[in-house]
Amino acid sequence: MRDLHLSLNQTQRVRLQAALDQLESYAASTAAAAASVTVADSIPVNHEDNILKGHGTSDLDGQVVATLCGVVERVNKLVYVRALRSRYKPEVGDIIVGRVIEIAPKRWRLEINFSQDAVLMLSSMNLPDGIQRRRTAVDELNMRSIFVENDVICAEVRGFQHDGSLQLQARSQKYGKLEKGQLLTVPPYLVKRRKQHFHHLDQYNVDLIVGCNGFVWVGEHVETSEKESTLLSDKPSGKQETDNSVPLETRRHICRIANAVRLLSVIGLTLTVESVTETVEASLRSNIEINEMLGSEFYVQTVEREAQRRASMVRKRS
Amino acid sequence: MGPPPTLPTSHSFSSPSPKTLQETKTPFEIRFALLSSLSIQNHGMRHLKGEIGVVSKADGSALFEMGNTRVIAAVYGPKEIQNKGQQMNNNEALVRCEYSMANFSTGDRTRRPKGDRRSTEISLVIRQTMEACILTKLMPRSQIDIFVQVLQADGGTRSACINAATLALADAGVPMRDIITSCSAGYLCTTPLLDLNYAEDSAGGPDVTVGILAKMDKVTLLQMDAKLPLDTFENVMQLAIEGCKAVAQYIREILLENTKQLESRRGS
């Protein structure tokens, strides 16, 4: 168990074990369980239909051998191993959350849980004044007025340069600096690529951004269209800091949602808006304090709820 | 950290009186007391135990026990190269390794300087061994840091470190050619011995540490501290290789179980 040290009592231990066994039994009925491999396991393939070896495989004496621990996936002729715990593997168009670690000439360097730092060029993001123009030397000198070191940023993967470095872009109002919230890091395999990664949780007035790289942002809701106008109007007056502190209620919501994300990632359940909101609602229903969400009782309850959810899914299918 | 160390059950000693056991307190003292009455028998491997995911902030981590030897390994990376000067080749990952022994890991508590010669040498050995199996070409312009620390030393620390590092690297999702495992063997009183503990190691006989790529059957590490006749050496090495294969079997079981658990919890 990573991250969380629980002291379970006897009943909780039995309940947890029962729920985990249940989860395992549902997984065992699917194909994925049978296809789990570890490093140096040979993957059975039919060599007649000249297969293509994908990620996580290598060739050893004519056998296809896994080089990672994970699950074997087959798409037509392609055979590859989907790794579970590993660093983020970027794909073009992914929405990611990152942290600025360095300002270099015409670019920011971001830590995004990839094997290298990502690069956000000054030219591949909208200027705060919203005007489309060539970036001048003055803009370059004013880069710190946009992002400084340790800022948390949301951006999109633009692609790989020919030298192998990863380029990002932030060409829309929805991308950019994230403020007034919490950044959480979860293993990237828990985040699935979906149509929507920005979520506005209306009832809590909170934004939830689930980055494909496993960085999750929980923060106060900002109106993207409004943001543009406030940026223009507020900048000269410079009173941005003072007039909009986050109300206590919203802060509580942020903490509650953040703890839900933490809990799900510690258990190892997939992170989606649905699972997060469901966990938050369950904690509210059973009157669990924010700090108790990471305690043993709610942990066991969450695993049990997940087991029930999968049970109902299996029933629906059959 | 876990239960207090117990006497290795797989070892057999020539009936030490139970009184001596009660008089001496720590396992190390017990072992020294037993050293005199140590009878050499061809025992098998000591008890193995591996646990994945013990360091929460690391990309991969593992705890590995061989009898009373207990080692923790943490892998960070692949990540951006911190010191560009160390980068030898732009097309492959840089592997770094740091071995250290906790002050409390041995019987007498000694304060070692951080970069003493012994730990520098073992760091190098582990780094070279792990480099042989990591597919560094797949991760250009990045570095992988491996930190191993000995929590409890009872002989065969470098073997345990290599096994722990393998588990941690697999947990970190670093692509590897094969699983590297290591085991030591010795030769005392005309008997080849597998997986020497501290008492057997300090008896002064030769100590052969072998690291193999389990599936490809290739040797990546071979160290020996003394001289041995060639035919005896081959016996001893064969024994060590068998030990490595037993470790490999165990490590794969742990990894498969861990993978299945992660996948089952994640759901579809």
TrEMBL record, chain A:
One of its GO terms (biological process) is exonucleolytic trimming to generate mature 3'-end of 5.8S rRNA from tricistronic rRNA transcript (SSU-rRNA, 5.8S rRNA, LSU-rRNA). It is found in: Nucleus. One of its GO terms (cellular component) is nuclear exosome (RNase complex). Keywords: Exosome, Nucleus, RNA-binding, rRNA processing. Residues 91-171 form the S1 motif domain. GO terms for molecular function: RNA binding. This is Exosome complex component rrp4-like protein. It comes from Carex littledalei.
Automatic annotation (TrEMBL), chain B:
The keyword Acetylation does not apply. Signal peptide: none annotated. It comes from the Eukaryota. GO terms for biological process: nuclear mRNA surveillance; poly(A)-dependent snoRNA 3'-end processing; rRNA catabolic process; U4 snRNA 3'-end processing. One of its GO terms (molecular function) is RNA binding. Its main location: cytoplasm. InterPro entries: ExoRNase_PH_dom1, ExoRNase_PH_dom2, ExoRNase_PH_dom2_sf, PNPase/RNase_PH_dom_sf, Ribosomal_Su5_D2-typ_SF, RNase_PH. The keyword Cytoplasm applies. Residues 45-175, 178-243 form the Exoribonuclease phosphorolytic domain. One of its GO terms (cellular component) is cytoplasmic exosome (RNase complex). Residues 1-22 are annotated as: Disordered. Keywords: Cytoplasm, Exosome. Residues 8-22 have a biased composition (Polar residues). It is found in: Cytoplasm; Nucleus, Nucleolus. Belongs to the RNase PH family. This is Exosome complex component RRP41. It comes from Carex littledalei.
